[in-house]
């Protein structure tokens, strides 16, 4: 058996949580491979909305194994809050959630360092989620991190050594006032550690490879999106992990030859939270209309998301980097009321049109648009592809032709049921 991978092709928030939940019945194991509580993955069913940050989106389906892989960074505070919330809704995941011993821990001081670093950058800040992601991965790569597996042996000693180093950085380099915040967070953090330790903490690479050997099917759930990838995104305005398909190999311990289908998710338009270039951004009434219709506010930070038209230059780049085998188009319903829908098919840079994603997206990059007619139809109640308006079929065909791969699912609302599987003749 192979591992299928589902990941975002844009700047995050494409709707990964919803589709992982929809596809989970087809799999035995669901696993997160990178990122941490910077992620906010929303699922909706039975008129209830759930937002997950660390826990895989397969958790609401019965008899499925869910795995938090070694590539993920875990904040015990957030983890505990998530578990508490799930318990409130009657979901007990103590038996079917497995956590990698090699996943790194976000320490309370990592969050402080994130805030201090953003403050120091001032105008050039990344606009991070302030969840401590950058500093935690920095320590991981710098060989100074603490892992979940460290919890069992001399943990306090190891913890205190890290905290002392971080305090020196905060005081001497960042001149950041932190004592009060740290005291509050540390108490909660250790409560979170107690909860974390009550779960199955294992070498998840063995669990996953054994599952594959036994013929079980695995779905890997990406966080963030390709354009936020540490290597290929709009650096430095990116997150600190490999969000692309290759990240599933290193973030789970899966060999590249074991990757199967790669589902690439994109919104029928574009959004971005935080700073950094965004060629098709609309700083006008149309952008506001997209934000209102799509309810584009961050699931983790509540920040308004920047909105713009679909960017096929960036999408093609993402499809290439991930070896995407099929596309999933989300939030088509958000475009229901538009007379004309624009799609960016090239970038004009200093009078020349390019279709390859450039090294740097400066203000000189101007999107080249094709106008397509809107469908002016309420899609949210549609149950079958046969009911699609002609203009929507045109929109889908246009994207498929440009990308050279099929769109296999179109999503027409946040609910599980508002998902349409597309047949190809
Ligand atoms: P993720 O981070 O990729 O899982 O995406 P988020 O959960 O951050 O953001 C997606 C948002 O869009 C959530 O509020 C979803 O409930 C919502 N959503 C998902 N699919 C659709 C859709 O097809 N139509 C509409 N209108 N909303 C959707
Ligand atoms: P999901 O999984 C959208 C963005 C932040 C910021 C940059 C770096 O829900 O799609 P970080 O906190 O990672 O250091 O922030 O990345 N960002 C996201 N944007 N969705 C996410 O996750 C994101 N996770 C991080 O806004 O611009
Ligand atoms: Mg999100």
Structure, briefly:
The protein is built from eleven helices and 20 strands. It is of the alpha/beta class. The protein has a ten-stranded mixed sheet, with helices on both faces. Strands 14, 16, 17 and 18 form a four-stranded mixed sheet that branches.
Structural class: alpha/beta
Shape: globular
What's the number of helices?
Answer: 11
State the end-to-end distance. Answer: 27 Å
Which SSEs are present, and which pair or pack?
Elements lengths: L2 E6 L7 H8 L5 E4 L8 E5 L2 E5 L12 E4 L4 E2 L1 H13 L8 E4 L3 E2 L2 H14 L11 H9 L13 H19 L5 H19 L2 E3 L1 H10 L4 E4 L24 H7 L6 E9 L2 E3 L12 H10 L11 E3 L1 E2 H11 L3 E5 L9 E10 L2 E3 L10 E9 L16 H14 L3 E5 L7 E3 L4
Bound molecules: guanosine-5'-diphosphate (GDP), 6-O-phosphoryl inosine monophosphate and magnesium ion.
The site of guanosine-5'-diphosphate has 24 residues, from helix 1 and strand 3.
Molecular structure report:
β16 and β17 (352-354) form a beta hairpin. The mean pLDDT is 96. α3 runs parallel beside α5. This protein has helices spanning 16-23, 76-88, 108-121, 133-141, 155-173, 179-197, 204-213, 246-252, 285-294, 312-322, 390-403; strands at 3-8, 29-32, 41-45, 48-52, 65-68, 73-74, 97-100, 104-105, 200-202, 218-221, 259-267, 270-272, 306-308, 310-311, 326-330, 340-349, 352-354, 365-373, 407-411, 419-421. The chain is 32% helix and 21% strand. With 425 residues, it is α/β, with parallel strands linked by helices. The two termini are 27 Å apart. The chain contains eleven helices and 20 strands. The strands form five sheets. Strands 9-7-5-2-10-1-11-15-19-20 form a ten-stranded mixed β-sheet, with helices on both faces. Residues 8, 12-18, 39-42, 44, 294, 299, 330-331, 333-334, 411-414, 418 line the site of guanosine-5'-diphosphate. Guanosine-5'-diphosphate is lined by residues 8, 12-18, 39-42, 44, 294, 299, 330-331, 333-334, 411-414, 418.
């Amino acid at each position: 058996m192979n591992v299928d991978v589902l990941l975002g092709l844009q700047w995050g928030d494409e709707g990964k949580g919803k589709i992982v939940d929809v596809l989970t019945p087809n799999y035995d194991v669901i696993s997160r491979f990178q990122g941490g509580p910077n992620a906010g993955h929303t699922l909706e069913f039975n008129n209830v909305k759930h937002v997950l940050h660390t826990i895989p989106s397969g958790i609401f389906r019965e008899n499925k194994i869910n795995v938090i892989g070694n590539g993920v960074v875990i904040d015990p505070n957030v983890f505990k809050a998530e578990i508490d919330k799930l318990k409130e809704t009657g979901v007990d995941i103590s038996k079917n959630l497995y956590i990698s011993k090699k996943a790194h821990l976000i320490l309370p001081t990592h969050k402080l360092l994130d805030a201090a670093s953003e403050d120091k950058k001032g105008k050039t800040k990344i606009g991070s989620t302030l969840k401590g992601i950058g500093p935690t991965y920095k320590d991981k790569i710098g060989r100074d991190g603490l892992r979940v597996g460290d919890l069992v042996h001399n943990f306090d000693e190891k913890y205190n050594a890290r905290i002392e180093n971080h305090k020196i950085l905060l005081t001497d380099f960042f001149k950041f006032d932190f004592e009060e915040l740290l005291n509050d967070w540390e108490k909660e953090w250790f409560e979170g550690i107690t909860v974390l330790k009550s779960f199955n903490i294992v070498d998840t690479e063995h669990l996953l490879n054994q599952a594959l050997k036994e013929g079980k099917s695995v779905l890997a759930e990406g966080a963030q999106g390709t354009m936020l990838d540490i290597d290929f995104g709009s650096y430095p305005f990116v997150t600190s992990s490999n969000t692309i398909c290759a990240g599933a190999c290193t973030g789970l311990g899966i060999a590249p030859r074991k990757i199967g289908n790669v589902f690439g998710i994109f919104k029928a338009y574009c959004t971005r939270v935080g700073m950094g270039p965004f060629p098709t951004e609309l700083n006008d009434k149309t952008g506001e209309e997209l934000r209102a219709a799509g309810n584009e506010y961050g699931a983790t930070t509540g920040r308004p998301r920047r909105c713009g038209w679909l960017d096929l230059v960036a999408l093609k780049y993402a499809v290439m980097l991930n070896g995407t085998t099929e596309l999933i188009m989300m939030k088509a319903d958000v475009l229901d009321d538009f007379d004309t829908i624009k799609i960016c098919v090239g970038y004009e840079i200093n009078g020349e049109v390019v279709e390859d994603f450039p090294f740097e997206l400066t203000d000189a990059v101007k999107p080249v648009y094709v106008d397509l007619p809107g469908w002016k139809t309420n899609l949210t109640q549609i149950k079958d592809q046969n009911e699609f308006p002609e203009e929507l079929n045109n929109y889908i065909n246009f994207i498929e032709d440009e990308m050279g791969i099929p769109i296999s699912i179109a999503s027409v609302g946040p609910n599980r049921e508002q998902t349409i599987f597309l047949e190809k003749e």
